[in-house]
Amino acid sequence: MGSSPTPPEPPPLTGLPGPWAQHPFVIGDRWRWHEARYLCAPRALVVGMAARAGHHPGRARSITALGDPGAVAELVANRSEEVLHGFAPQSVSLPPGAWDLLPAALRDRWNLPRRGRWDWMWTEQVPPAHHLEDQVVPLEIPRHLEQIHAVQAVALPGTHFGPDRSGSTWFGIWRGAAELAAVAGSFDWVNAVHLGGIGTRPDLRGSGLGSALTAAITRAGVSRFGRVSLGVYADNLRAKALYARLGYAVGHELDSRHVAA
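RESULT FIELD:
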């Protein structure tokens, strides 16, 4: 259903204890962990990786972690330099509550004022067919760039997953010949599929457009790779209910901090 440039190979999991290696988030997300190094304890896993191209040159690394908030905070506070290679991080994504347990001096030094609380959801199920799926079509970048931005501006203000993201592939549903009604982004199509940036114009919500987009892309991704993942803001209960109806479950909860825009 889509294609994109080949991303870096996922890091090996050699030496990672079984319970962490089998975690859905590790299985489903590790293909994005470029130049990854990890620290682990019985109740915490901390992964440092290269930040995406285009990020601040003085912040070449990012951190993601899972496990008990207290154990994660202790591991990050005591050993994060090992995975950051001496850089301040571009972003830090921790289990809810872990950030506030870090030393204040460390939080101040990292200076990550932008915050997003979101859930990583995943599925291995082929979703039920949706009657509007035949309206889902690929979008072209840069041809449809501004139209995608226009939908996201009213449907998902502040989203971090936009059409400018390198390697992303986009799909949409049109209302008439010229107006884009709903959009959905996806990433990779080489190792896995991750969805993001899914939005419907507010005046058209409830008409099934988001469900149709998600179902169509999920069906293609599960058929090709066996699983699909997505990120959704934790307080977006309507979207989470939609994804649950399509077979998605929450695999990991994250509190993300980013550098200033």
